[in-house]
Design a protein that fits this description.
The protein has about 140 residues and is an all-alpha fold. It is built from 7 helices and no strands. Helix 2 packs across helix 3.
């Protein structure tokens, strides 16, 4: 195994910082959520550690509402690579997509449906008028 094949170490502290910042949470707010013994400075020290104690990591993950595995395994380079590839591939797929309907035909169908609705409405109004005429004739 050469050095290019060597697995990259995940920096858990940096990952905590990334997730915290993505959520718009300040170090002070995270310290308050963790409890009285925590301060902004202690959060800063934790975020500088490559490996964080599992118990603390579980608490932080719960507060940030992310899975512990996300903090332990998040690799920014891999994430960027995946996003770029998915974004680039999405453009290629979109160019080959074929529509299974003709929009003009759909538009004509809608117009025909509206026409039928108006005809039924007109018939209903005509029926009401006939009923009113009959009622007036009977009352006179």
């Amino acid at each position: 195994m050469n050095t290019t094949d060597k697995p990259k170490n995940i920096h858990q502290g940096s990952n905590v910082k990334r997730f915290r910042e993505m959520l718009g949470l300040k170090q002070e707010a995270l310290a308050i959520a963790l409890g009285e013994e925590w301060s902004q400075k202690r959060i800063s020290l934790m975020e500088s550690k490559e490996v964080i104690d599992d118990e603390i990591l579980n608490q932080v993950a719960e507060i940030l509402k992310v899975p512990v595995e996300a903090i332990k395994n998040f690799d920014e380079e891999k994430a960027i690579f995946n996003i770029q590839n998915n974004y680039e591939n999405s453009h290629n797929k979109g160019a080959n997509y074929q529509y299974n309907f003709n929009p003009i035909e759909k538009w004509v169908e809608v117009i025909e449906e509206n026409k039928k609705l108006y005809e039924r409405l007109l018939k209903s109004e005509q029926d009401k008028n006939e009923l009113l005429k009959d009622i007036i004739k009977k009352n006179n």
